[in-house]
Amino acid sequence: MNPRFLAIAQDPSIIPGVHHHCDEWCDYCPVPERCLEFRCTAAFRQQHRRRNADATFASMDEAIAFTREIAALDGSSTEELDALLAKPGGGHGLETSDPLAAVAWDYAVGAAFLFTASSMTHLGHGRRGATPAPEEVVLWHHLRIYMKLVRALVSRSADDANGCAKLVLVSAQKSRAALIAVRATGRDAVDPLIVALEDLERGIEKRFPGARGYVRAGLDCPVC
Question: Tens of pLDDT along 13-68?
């Protein structure tokens, strides 16, 4: 175990599990310094002398080892990671043909086609203002909505499923507000995306009735 990670985990200001159901947009997170994964990632980059433009992990093995260490520190399971690694070609039981996932995928593809590659480059330059631009919001969340929904659908833990579904609801709500702002500038081509998000939210609330009320400590409510 990395001794620096152990020291961070022992910091009483760390909010347990805050990184489990977040949108990973650390530049706009209200509690990055209280997040175990954020601080361990920073420590890892420093230890390995990663430059600002460098990827955090130089190999898949580094990423897997890091994930296992974080899981060991906060007591979370690596069951899904183990299943993926055991059967990388499929057959690990984590795929889904659920129609709700198809809605999320169609939305992600539509958003990717509608918003240009030049808009996507903004996401690599860190925080540029107090709040992200509407286009940035859509592009940050479009694939995450799909990936977290799939995780919710295949999760073997009811708590994790509700947490992931809550994240998808929050991401969909932010994306819908961003698309409405884009539409206000005269780009009514976003209307099908707005409808898709509304359909997605209704589907999630039906499939995961506990998701809307799921409370993510530090994100949905403050923690002392």
Answer: 999 999 999 999 999 999 999 999 999 999 999 999 999 989 999 999 999 999 99
Look at the block and give the residue holding tokens 């994790």: 160
Q: Which long-range contacts (CB under 8 A, 24 or more apart) does 199-204 make?
A: 199/103, 200/100, 200/103, 200/104, 200/107, 200/145, 200/149, 200/168, 200/172, 201/169, 201/172, 201/173, 201/176, 203/100, 203/103, 204/100, 204/149, 204/152, 204/165, 204/168, 204/169, 204/172
Residue 52 lies in a domain: yes
Residue 15 and residue 224: Cα distance in Å, rounded?
9
Based on the fold, state whether residues 111 and 164 are members of the same structural domain: yes
Domain annotation covers residue 78: yes
Tokens 């055991």 found at: 86
Residue range(s) defining the domain that contains residue 38: 3-86
Q: Which amino acid is at 145?
A: I
Q: Is the pTM of this model over 0.85?
A: yes
Retrieve residue 60's tokens: 């898949």
